[in-house]
Amino acid sequence: MKTQVTKTKTHSSKIWRQKRWYGILFVVPAFFFIFAFMVYPIVYSLYMSLHKFNFVYDSSPKFIGFANYVKAFQDDSFLTALSNTFVFGSVYFVVIMVASLIMALLLFHTNRFSGLFRTFTFLPIVVPVSLSALVFMWILQENYGLLNSVLRDVLHLPDLALPWLNNGTTAMASIIGVSLWSTIGFETILFLGGLQSISQEVLEAAEVDGAGGFKRIIYIILPNLRETYILTGIWAILHGLKVFVEPMVMTNGGPGNSTTVLYQEIYHTAFSFFDMGYASAMAYILGFIALLFALLNFYVNRTKEA
């Protein structure tokens, strides 16, 4: 009997070891992918941020400590890009959170043509951002753009035909508008998911108690979306701080440097001036700012819940 039990245990142990090796074989490719394209670049860029290295002229990196970080906050180009990023991110965050929540509420409470409305809302998601930027760049051109042509020739409002991409203020507003158009559908999906996760019994009980219409939205629906605020807020913060494609394609940071954002400044420093150490330091500063705002968003929503 003991021999039989021992054989069974040995057989079970052998099967367990085989399954463990199969599991390891499945995990190893993903591990190497994550290490090669995420862990290693992050660690190496931290190493580079503490060195001076121009890969065209320098034979090897030269350790300079935190000099690159100090240099960043003394560099007018960096400070301008940082300011433009904060302007874009602040306006984008407020508008995308409010507008996508309103759209999600409308779609959530709309029965007729809801499928059609949702299709139009989510359609921009499938269009590449670079393509959207190119199309809107043509629409917003001062002389031959579709928008100014309609304002001048169709609506006979020539005073409203502006140099949308050739003026610092309107150029930034145009970039924000294009970014909102291309991403509002995704944020709306996230809010819709949060709305659909609210218990139907809670909504029905609120209606029975007389909390209908706006009261139900304010006192029942919005407080139950705290977890969704965290998710959508973090996504909006990250997108607002790492915006790149829209200003790069539509204005290339112009006019002047009025729409140059931090991601662009990092890109040009690394691949136009080949200063990999300074670019890595700026990238870590951007990453730290994004982490700080994401944690702040998490803390604010968690505090409200408590």
Secondary-structure blueprint of this entry?
Blueprint: H1 2-49, E1 51-52, E2 62-63, H2 67-72, H3 76-109, H4 114-122, H5 129-139, H6 146-154, H7 168-196, H8 200-208, H9 214-221, H10 226-241, H11 245-250, H12 262-271, H13 276-305
Antiparallel strand pairs: 1-2
Helix pairs in contact: 1-13, 3-7, 3-10, 3-12, 5-7, 7-10, 10-13, 12-13
Subcellular location: Cell membrane
InterPro entries: ABC_transporter_permease, MetI-like, MetI-like_sf
Family: Belongs to the binding-protein-dependent transport system permease family.
Overview of the structural elements:
With 306 residues, this protein is mostly helical. 74% of the residues lie in helices and 1% in strands. The model has no long low-confidence stretch (mean pLDDT 86). Belongs to the binding-protein-dependent transport system permease family. It is found in: Cell membrane.
